[in-house]
Amino acid sequence: MNCRFKLAAGMAAIALLALTAGVCLAGQVSAGDGASAVSELLRLLQAKGVVTSEEARVLEKKFDHSSSVSDKNKDKKSSMTAGKTANAPVSPPGGDKVMETIMSLADQNVISSDEKAEMTARADVLNSRSMGKSVPDRQQHEIGAEEIDYGKTTVPVEEIRDQLRFLAYRKVMTRDEAANAYRRFGNNYTAAEAGGQNTASVAMESKSVTDAGTSGDMKGDEAVVSNDEKTSGKVPFAYGEVIENIDALADQGIFSDNETDELKGRADLLKRRNNGEKVQERRRRVVGKDKIPYRRTTIEVDEVKDDLRFLTYQGVMIRRESTDAFARLEKKYPTDQLAENISDELAWEVRSQVEQKMDKVAALERKHTRLPDWLERINIGGDLRLRYERDFFDKNNGDFIDPSNLSQVLNSHKDQNLVKTRARLNLTATVNDYVQVGIGLATGNTNNPVSTNATLGTSLNKQNFLLDLAYLKWAPTPDLTFWGGRFANPWFHTDMVWDPDINFDGVAFSYRPKLTDSSGLFLTGGAFPIQSMSLTSNSKWLYGGQLGAQVRPVDKLTAKLGVAFYDFENTVGIANNPAQPGLTDWSAPQFQQKGNTLFDIDPSTSNKIAYASAFKELNITGSLDLGFWDPVHVNFTADYVNNLGFDQNDVNQRTGINVKKETVGYQFGVAVGYPTVRNYGEWKGFLCYKYLGSDAVMDAFTDSDFHLGGTNAKGWILGAEFGLAKNVWLSSKWLTTNEISGPPFAIDTFFFDLNAKF
Question: In this structure, are residues 662 and 695 in contact, taking their beta carbons and an 8 Å threshold?
Answer without folding.
Answer: yes
